[in-house]
Each structure stands twice: as structure tokens, then as C-alpha cells.
Amino acid sequence: MKMNTVAGFTFGVVLILVSFPACYAQLKKGFYADKCEINVEETVQRIVFERIQKDSTLVAALVRMQFHDCFVEGCDASLLLNGTSTEKTAGPNGSVRGYELIDEIKTELEQKCPDKVSCADIIVMATRDTITLSKGSRYEVETGRRDGSKSSASDAIANLPSPSISVFDAIEVFKAKGLNAADMVLLLGGHTIGKASCGNFESRLYNSPPDKSMDRSLAGKLKMICPKETEGSNAGQADLDQNSASTNIVDNSFYQQIRMNKGLLSIDQKIAFDLLTAELVKTLSNDNVQFLTRFGAAMVKLGAVGVKVGNEGEIRKDCRFVNNLATASPSKTTTPSTTPTTTPSTTPSTTPSTTPLTSGMLP
């Protein structure tokens, strides 16, 4: 995702409250209302707001985190687990970030409402709040997820779609997760924020023949960012939404840009004109309110993929470890550990990361 300019970040909020029926398994709105003396969602929102002021790139990072978590083992925070071959060590997850924010939220919630709030729910609540803070619609989330104990790099590689996937195949991948073609188009709208590294689109510039579906002026600009002599180095990055006025805003500009052949990723460009998706892309490009409302609905559906509820899973004490490995206090390590660690650092990092999106279709 493309949010990397803190100074230009706008904290305006589009106050469109989106409601959805509580129909996903045993998830429900206000799950923690009678379980904690504090207001859990307000606590999450406060911490998110404080961190976004310091690092606006977390908006894109959290949307990406939720997608990558939910598409592997369901929305169970398996992405957060440390280990030698867990999901976070997989290539498509190499640039996922925001772990420190989840740690910070978990630490406070464990102090004020111990053993109640799952890491999986924290991801979903925090993602919703970052979207709201970047002018997206505030949608109501359902909570009650439990945390999983299985996390495999090979599962991540097998389940996260490539940015060069075809539209038909992408629809099939989403269908396997209980999501439809419209959900896929809407979730790709998450590319309204964020950046992609050169490795995700340079084949479109330098293959023989080059991808003629890319706007020529955009191709020229990208060749300056990603020169052929550095091909494969992932040294550069570019905005996924080429509208510079919309860099820090969740809106429908992404769809307008891809309809002008200014999509960076192959799949982004394909959905603009494929018969299976073009009509919805056109509709969303012309109606920002509809996009904001339906994007929120798609995020709610994404958040219900493969959830663990009731007696399934556990409520982790430390989001980076299953409970039999968790330390007494939450870990604050800022980079994935290759082996379980028992010595947390004292404070989470607040420095904006410049690590680009390395692979993966969304977001």
C-alpha cells in the first residue's frame, strides 16, 4: 500500500456508518461489552490514532496484514506467530509490518482485561480504525475470534495469490475463501493506498514484448524508478494509486487510474477491462460513496474467513507465541524472530518503515 508521507496525512473521517447483520459463525458486534470493564474498541482506536500520527504508512500495512492473515488458516492471527518456518517467514509476507502496533494494543488490553481479547480481533479492529482515519467509512466489526496455533510458511505460499494472476483464477481463489468476484474487486480497492516494489511490476516494463496495456507515460516514469540494470533488486517502489492527490486517502481513485491504464500490478490492470469485472470497476470509479460503503462490507466478509470461535483455538497472552511458549509479558521485538524469543525489548518502534510490498496480490 502506498501511505508513506506523514506530513500530508489527513485525519478527516467520512462518517458513514456501515452496518451488517451478525451472521458470521459466532462472531457478533460488541462481543467484549460484558467481558471487560474497559471499552475494548475505544482502547484500540486510541492507540491506533496515536501510532498513525507518528507513522501514516501503518494504514496500508494493517490492511495488508488482515488480508494476509485471513487468507491463510483463516482470520486467526497465525501470521503474527514467530518461528523458523511460520507464515511471517514466507516470501509473500516478507514486507508485512505493523506487528509492533498489535503488540502495543495487546499489552494494554492484557493489563486491563487479561485473557479475554484475541490477537485476531485486534488485527480486525485496528485495521478498521486505520481505514477510518484515512477518510474511509467507519464500518462496524464483529468480534469473538480465537487465535490459532498453526502457522506455516508453505501454507502462506500456497494460499496468497500472485500479483500476476489472471482475473478468472483470482475469482476462483477468492471463491475458495467464501468471497465472490465483487469482493475481490472491492478488496483490490485497498490499493488506493500503499506502494509496490519494482519486483512486482518490472516484468511489465522489460518483458519482450513489454505490456502494452500500461500507459506509456507511466511506463516511462516507472523505468526511471526501476531501471533495467537494477532489475530483480527490488530497490525502488511506486504508488499503487497513481493519483498523487489521493496518496493518503482511502477513496475510489484507484479505479479511475486503472481505467486509464495506470495500474501498477498486472491483476490491477486486468480487472479494469476483463468482462468479469469491468462493469463493477466502472461503477466504483464513478461513485466514491458506493465504494466506501461496499469496501467496508468486503472487509467485514474478509474478517469472517475461516474464523475460530467458541472453544476453538485460544486467547494468546502474547501475539507472537502460542500460550505454552508465551513469555510473562508481550514481546515487542520489531522484526520476525527465527526462533522463539523470551526476552522482549522495552518499547515498540515508532519509526516508519520503508520496506516495500514484495509480493502478494493484496493489498
UniProtKB/TrEMBL annotation:
Amino acids binding Ca(2+) 2: 192, 241, 251
EC number(s) reported in the record: 1.11.1.7
N-terminal signal peptide: 1-25
Positions that bind heme b: 191
SUPFAM superfamilies reported for this sequence: Heme-dependent peroxidases
Family: Belongs to the peroxidase family. Ascorbate peroxidase subfamily.
Region Disordered, residue ranges: 327-363
Free-text cofactor note: Binds 2 calcium ions per subunit.
Keywords for this protein: Calcium, Disulfide bond, Glycoprotein, Heme, Hydrogen peroxide, Iron, Metal-binding, Oxidoreductase, Peroxidase, Secreted, Signal
Record localization: Secreted
Chain positions recorded as Ca(2+) 1 binding sites: 69, 72, 74, 76, 78, 87
Cystine crosslinks: 36-113, 70-75, 119-319, 198-226
InterPro entries: Haem_peroxidase, Haem_peroxidase_sf, Peroxidase_pln, Peroxidases_AS, Peroxidases_heam-ligand_BS, Secretory_peroxidase
UniProt-recorded name of the protein: Peroxidase
Record organism: Papaver somniferum
Domain of life according to the entry: Eukaryota
Enzyme class: oxidoreductase
Annotated site, Transition state stabilizer, chain positions: 64
Active site: 68
Residues the entry annotates as binding substrate: 161
Function comment: Removal of H(2)O(2), oxidation of toxic reductants, biosynthesis and degradation of lignin, suberization, auxin catabolism, response to environmental stresses such as wounding, pathogen attack and oxidative stress. These functions might be dependent on each isozyme/isoform in each plant tissue.
Gene Ontology biological-process entries: hydrogen peroxide catabolic process; response to oxidative stress
Cofactor needs: Ca(2+); heme b
